[in-house]
Write a structure and sequence with these properties.
Blueprint (H helix, E strand, L loop, with lengths): L15 H13 L6 H11 L6 E5 L2 H11 L7 E5 L5 H8 L3 E5 L10 H7 L4 E4 L11 H11 L2 E5 L7 E2 L2 E2 L6 E5 L12 E5 L2 H10 L21 H31 L12 E2 L5 E4 L4 H10 L26 H9 E4 L7 H12 L6
Parallel strand pairs: 2-3, 2-4, 4-5, 5-8
Antiparallel strand pairs: 1-9, 6-7, 6-10, 8-9, 11-12
The chain binds pyridoxal-5'-phosphate.
Length: 362
């Protein structure tokens, strides 16, 4: 309707509490990795069944350092979905290894275990499922594939803060789990990442890798990078972490409202044993998605496509002979609608109304 404020597809929270936390750290004069990072790691650990947590400067760094800490490098292949953000495969390449793309389950958009089984070869060192849109990948099936071959199972949980499978939080289901704190995620720290692992030795290696290989200053033990999180970012992350349960519940309730009201397009599927974190609420638009998106924009409803081009079709990854029909179809059809916690009931009715009116297009 003319005059109505458009509904954005995402709305990061930078409220008074986040600003106060940042100012408190800035005023302390001690802003680099320090006590706030340590406290954030400890508080995050309570979310992931007490596993070791190592904070870094992004989700990409989290994935990259995890592969390095697990000893995965140039001789190795890592099985990943192509239907993800490029960071998933970039992390594999940055570690010197080779990404091998496997197709997805068309209902959950996550790795299809039978496609993963077919992709395992003599050089496979790890499987890296992505809990895409906040829906947990089929970890029990992937776990049995990984265990049978002694492969690492690295969760890309960058979109899935608050998701769970059979009551267990994502991030605590694999050999390691990686989160992103980019502003549009279910919680943020301006930028940042967190690695979760049950292995104290891996956690120590990660702490060295993020800090030039040092535990003691100038006593460098290994070659590392500077991938530290600042105390300013950690202070904001701590504020957001406290509100994560409330925000994830709100996302679930918004998704329920939308799924009850939307007609004529397939709404998100939730596996029986899964608690979806609804980072995205994604429908399929089989015909002329661009025109549908334009129609929604004209009705003040923001939307976004994650992802229009599968990773195997991006310039750095082209040239393989991949057969990924479900990935290609999803890339043509998916459209994510607003589901963020700042939506009001009226907004949800407007979103559903605009989607339902797609049938009226001539
Ligand atoms: C699935 C996935 N993996 C990895 C990343 C990388 O996270 P970051 O942007 O914090 O580096 C993101 C986030 O953008 C993501 O969505």
């Amino acid at each position: 309707m003319p005059g109505e404020v458009p509904i954005p597809s995402a709305k990061p929270v930078i409220g008074e509490a986040e600003i106060a936390a940042a100012v408190r750290v800035l005023r302390s004069g001690s802003v680099v990795q320090g006590p706030e990072v340590a406290a954030f790691e400890e508080e995050f650990s309570a979310w992931v069944e007490g596993r070791h947590c190592v904070a870094v400067n992004s989700g990409t760094s989290a994935l990259h350092l995890t592969l390095m800490a697990l000893g995965i490098g140039p001789a190795d292949e890592v099985i990943v979905p192509s239907f993800s953000f490029a960071a998933t495969a970039n992390a594999v390449r940055l570690a010197g290894a080779t990404p091998v793309f496997a197709d997805i389950d068309p209902d959950t958009y996550c790795l299809d275990p039978s496609a993963v089984a077919a992709a395992i070869g003599p050089r496979t060192a790890a499987i890296m499922p992505v809990h895409l849109y906040g829906h947990p990948a089929d970890m029990p099936a992937l776990r049995s594939l990984a265990d049978g071959r002694h492969l690492a199972l690295v969760e890309d949980a960058c979109q899935a803060h608050g998701a769970a499978l059979r009551g267990k939080p994502v991030g605590a289901l694999g050999t390691a789990g990686c989160f992103s704190f980019y502003p549009t995620k279910n919680m943020h720290a301006l930028e940042g990442g967190m690695i979760v692992t049950p292995d104290a030795g891996v956690a120590r290696t990660l702490r060295l890798l993020r800090n030039q290989g040092m535990e003691q200053r100038y006593a460098n033990e290994i070659v590392g990078a500077n991938m530290r999180m600042t105390d300013v970012a950690a202070a904001i992350g701590r504020v957001q972490l406290k509100r994560l349960p409330e925000w994830v519940e709100q996302r679930r309730s918004n998704a329920k409202h939308l799924s009850a009201a939307i007609r004529g397009v397939p709404v998100p599927h939730v596996a029986e044993d899964a608690a979806h974190a609804f980072h995205q609420y994604t429908v399929r638009i089989a015909a002329d998605r661009d025109a549908a998106q334009q129609w929604l924009t004209e009705r003040g409803v923001g939307s976004a496509v994650y992802y229009p081009t599968p990773i195997h079709r991006l310039k750095p990854y082209r040239g393989g002979t991949w057969e990924l029909p479900q990935t290609d179809r999803a890339a043509r059809e998916v459209l994510s609608l607003p589901v963020h916690p700042a939506l009001a009931g009226d907004d949800l009715d407007r979103i559903a109304g605009a989607v339902n009116s797609l049938r009226e297009r001539t």
